[in-house]
Amino acid sequence: MATCTPARSIARTLWWSWRSGPSRRPVADTSAQSRPHDLPDDVSGTLELLTSGDYIAGRDLATVVYLALAMQRPLLLEGEAGVGKTEIAKVLSSVLGRELIRLQCFEGLDLATAAYEWNYPRQMVAIRIAEAEGRADRVESDIYRRDFLVERPLLAALRERDSAAPVLLIDEIDRADEPFEAFLLEVLSDFQLSIPELGTVRASSPPLVIITSNRTREIHDALRRRCLYHWVNYPSVTDENRILQLKAPGAGDRLRDQVVQFVQKLRDEDLFKRPGVAETIDWANALTQLDAVELRPELVNDTLGALLKYQDDIARIQGSEAARILADILAAD
After folding, report:
1. What is the pTM of this model?
2. Which residues, in sequence order, are CB contacts of 147 under 8 Å at separation 6+?
3. How far apart are CA 113 and CA 23, in angstroms?
4. Measured between alpha carbons, how far is 285 from 297 in angstroms, rounded to an integer?
5. How high is the mean pLDDT in each 10-residue block of the chain (333 residues)?
6. Dihedral sign for Cα atoms in the order 56, 69, 101, 74
7. Residues 6 or more apart from 99 whose CB is under 8 A from it?
8. DSSP state string for 186-242
9. What is the pLDDT of residue 23?
10. Residue 253 CB burial class (10 angstroms; 0-12, 13-18, ≥19)
11. SS3 175
């Protein structure tokens, strides 16, 4: 009977690990920025910083962002979909000149997808070479080195780098399973990641961590305690109008005012999914594309698909209800 050398035993283990590994293994979504910007000195400076990135924020949001930056604490942002939670991380990356590393959460997210995995094919090649050179007894220590490690977003955010620490966006954490939250605790508490075969990887400079949740399920208290928290609400009429000035510049003053008022009233209706700021922007741009200068009943009915994303909601608003809301707006002019 052929003997099974340690190298072959390791190779067999690696082969089956590779064959049974997860099918979705995204590399960190990164975007390098140039010339890092200094962190703001106070809340007013944070407001100015966000505004310079075309993000309209209230003082309450600017305050918690400033504290997260100054205290080097993760920031958990909850709110309805489309209110601008993810955009905050993108804007901070842009205005601070820092790399953005994004981890998009989903059901079944695991260690190999979120943090790291070993390059099994490369390890197997190294094993064969070691066997051929008579170094089979040292193969285990040889194949568990940093250069055999494949970085995923969490490990990439902790890696030593010459530039400033990145912005780490953990997006829609409520889509991930609860066990993944437990794994995150070490990263969020100590900005480190334990790799059994290699040791502990610690960030020399902590990343700026933004975690978002649409609150489709409750996030565990242990994770919440490690973060600063803010509920991102729908913007006021004034702020939403300012947002459209930046994001839908083709819309005239009258159309922009009517769009904001219509959407604000629509959010008071009994809808399955109320429109967020993203939908307001889409609708304003769609109306501009149709050369609209003001809202009319037939125009509203024809374009509701840019604003509402469920047929039951569209059926509820289309027709007489849309006409009533529009009449209220025109009567207030």
Report:
1. 0.85
2. none
3. 9
4. 18
5. 53 49 46 64 97 96 98 97 97 97 96 90 83 73 81 94 94 95 92 90 95 96 97 97 97 98 97 96 98 97 97 96 95 83
6. negative
7. 30, 31, 32, 33, 93, 161, 163, 166, 167
8. HHHHHSEEEETTTEEEE-SS--EEEEEE--SSPPPHHHHHTSEEEE-PPPPHHHHHH
9. 42
10. exposed
11. helix
Cα–Cα–Cα angle for 112, 114, 116, nearest 5°? 50
The CATH code that applies to domain 32-115+152-231 is 3.40.50.300
Residue with tokens 């429109």: 275
Q: Where are the domains of the chain?
A: 6-22+117-146, 32-115+152-231, 237-332
Q: Tokens 């005012």 map to which residue? A: 257
Give counts: helices (H), strands (E), the chain.
16, 10
**Closest alpha carbon to 244 in 252, 52, 262, 85:** 252
284: its two tokens: 């304003």
Beta-carbon neighbour count of residue 103 at 10 Å? 25
Q: Quick one: pLDDT at residue 1?
A: 47
Instruction: With CA atoms as reference, report the closest residue to 256 among 273, 266, 272, 242.
Output: 242
